[in-house]
């Protein structure tokens, strides 16, 4: 935590700084070119150092929602540190909090326990936030940042965060705490997956109509599977243009498939795995994109590469496709061993579902035995019952989820999954039943 009222809680500090701290008098000339390029600035009108730093903060999910004034106040307080190729920064946990951003170049972050055992490594790209231990865990972990190329990092100490954020300090403090909890879960997942290198099957969730509850069911079903297979279930959020998996799971995103595409081919797998964030249930979440403008990057080829890379070590990969049959969605459906089609009991939704099923069968050659149909009642008295829906589609429902009022939304507002907050709710029961259906169909225990 950054602070509680007038008191200051313990936190992060850079314990060993062997790198050269840049002089602020260098101005814009000392700022990273790569970050300037990512901001879309015209090469003939180079942005100032302040603008570049504001852009970097905007790229972080921790600060993205802050007002422009707060972002500029933080940007002015950033300290630039040069990191040469092969040089290492050791980050301790005494003194004031600090956030570390990679502004330019390439670096590798490693987190080890006090015995020196490396728990995880990540290849960082410009714009990435390098996570430091939370105060209460600082004496148990050591973070190192090694320059793979000449690089620049930008740091914010606790005083700068407190002064720059003002009333927003608590919100950011909570996000930083979540980030470290996710890192600890990431380390546990890395260890659990190391023993299983075979690729897990893919389960794709799709709905032909918005508002069907497909993302809610995808996330909670994946969490139900993760309860049985901790740290071996990954949810890939391919819902476009706005994915909500991380929001529903109360996670702070740090990267995406689109972001990992900026890495070199040799670093792509590491960058991709570094973008996975872990829920306390053991569920991993990998966003496809973090911003709408990244949608164009999500080609079928990139999606296929990503799915192949992340499937290793997973018992099962769940993909939330949302409602769009985009390139990314089509590439996923082609690879999926199970396709879950979610629909509410409404005439338009059932009609669209019937058309989609025809596309899957006649154009994409998806066998009927790979498709599971889920009827999700979104209103207390739906216009169609299960029998009528099955009659229209000419197919039986695999699972029916009864009306659950506002419980899923209430769980999200409370910062958790409905599956954990209220296991007896209708969505929780439906997700658990669907998880059992998927596990049996794919023989995950076999």
Would you give an account of this structure?
The protein has 16 helices and 18 strands. By secondary structure, it is α/β, with parallel strands linked by helices. It has two domains: 13-188, Jelly Rolls (Sandwich); 196-442, Rossmann fold. The strands form three sheets. The chain has an eight-stranded mixed β-sheet, with helices on both faces. A hairpin with a 4-residue loop joins strand 13 (277-278) and strand 14 (283-287). The radius of gyration is 23 Å and the shape is elongated. 47% of the residues are buried.
Task: Provide the fold topology.
Blueprint: E1 13-16, E2 20-21, H1 33-38, H2 49-59, H3 68-76, E3 79-83, E4 88-92, E5 98-104, E6 107-113, E7 118-124, E8 129-130, E9 141-147, E10 151-157, H4 158-165, H5 169-194, E11 202-206, H6 214-228, E12 233-237, H7 245-248, H8 257-260, H9 268-274, E13 277-278, E14 283-287, H10 300-311, E15 316-320, H11 327-335, E16 338-343, H12 347-363, E17 371-376, H13 386-393, E18 399-401, H14 407-413, H15 418-421, H16 426-442
Parallel strand pairs: 11-15, 11-16, 12-14, 12-15, 16-17, 17-18
Antiparallel strand pairs: 1-4, 2-3, 3-10, 4-9, 5-8, 5-10, 6-7, 6-9, 13-14
List keywords for this structure.
18 strands; disordered N terminus; 37% helix; Rossmann fold; Jelly Rolls; 5-stranded antiparallel sheet; single chain; 8-stranded mixed sheet; 2 domains; 446 residues; alpha/beta
């Amino acid at each position: 935590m950054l602070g509680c009222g007038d008191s200051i809680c313990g936190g992060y500090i850079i314990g060993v700084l062997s790198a050269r701290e840049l002089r602020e008098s260098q101005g814009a000339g000392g700022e990273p070119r790569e970050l300037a390029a990512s901001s879309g600035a015209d090469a003939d009108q180079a942005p100032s150092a302040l603008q570049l730093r504001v852009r970097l903060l905007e790229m972080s999910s921790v600060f993205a929602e802050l007002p422009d004034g707060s972002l500029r106040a933080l940007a002015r307080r950033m300290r630039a540190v040069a990191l040469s190729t092969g040089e290492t920064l050791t980050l301790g946990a005494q003194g004031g909090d600090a956030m570390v951003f990679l502004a330019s170049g390439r670096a590798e972050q490693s987190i080890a326990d006090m015995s020196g055992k490396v728990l995880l490594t990540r290849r960082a790209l410009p714009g990435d936030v390098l996570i430091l231990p939370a105060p209460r865990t600082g004496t148990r972990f050591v973070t190192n940042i090694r320059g793979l190329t000449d690089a620049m990092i930008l740091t914010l100490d606790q005083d700068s965060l407190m002064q720059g954020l003002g009333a927003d300090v608590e919100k950011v403090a909570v996000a930083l705490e979540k980030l470290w909890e996710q890192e600890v879960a990431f380390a546990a997942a890395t260890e659990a997956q190391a023993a299983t290198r075979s690729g897990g099957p893919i389960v794709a969730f799709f709905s032909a109509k918005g508002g069907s509850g497909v993302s809610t069911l995808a996330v909670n079903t994946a969490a139900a599977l993760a309860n049985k297979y901790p740290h071996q279930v990954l949810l890939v959020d391919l819902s476009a243009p706005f994915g909500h998996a991380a929001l529903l799971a109360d996670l702070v995103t740090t990267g995406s498939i689109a972001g990992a595409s900026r890495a070199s081919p040799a670093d792509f797998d590491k960058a991709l795995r570094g973008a996975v964030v872990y829920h306390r249930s053991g569920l991993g979440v990998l966003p496809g994109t973090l911003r709408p403008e990244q949608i164009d990057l999500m080609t079928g080829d990139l999606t296929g590469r990503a799915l192949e890379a992340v499937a290793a070590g997973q018992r099962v990969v769940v993909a939330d496709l949302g409602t769009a049959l985009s390139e990314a969605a089509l590439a996923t459906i082609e690879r999926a061993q199970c396709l879950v089609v979610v629909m509410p009991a409404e005439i338009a939704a059932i009609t669209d579902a019937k058309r989609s099923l025809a596309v899957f069968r006649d154009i994409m050659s998806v066998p009927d035995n790979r498709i599971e149909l889920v009827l999700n009642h979104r209103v207390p008295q739906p216009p169609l019952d299960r029998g009528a829906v099955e009659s229209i589609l000419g197919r039986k429902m695999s699972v029916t989820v009864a009306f659950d009022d506002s419980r899923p939304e209430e769980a999200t507002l409370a910062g958790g999954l409905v599956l954990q907050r209220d296991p007896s709710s209708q969505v929780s029961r439906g997700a658990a039943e669907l998880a059992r259906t998927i596990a049996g169909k794919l023989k995950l225990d076999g």
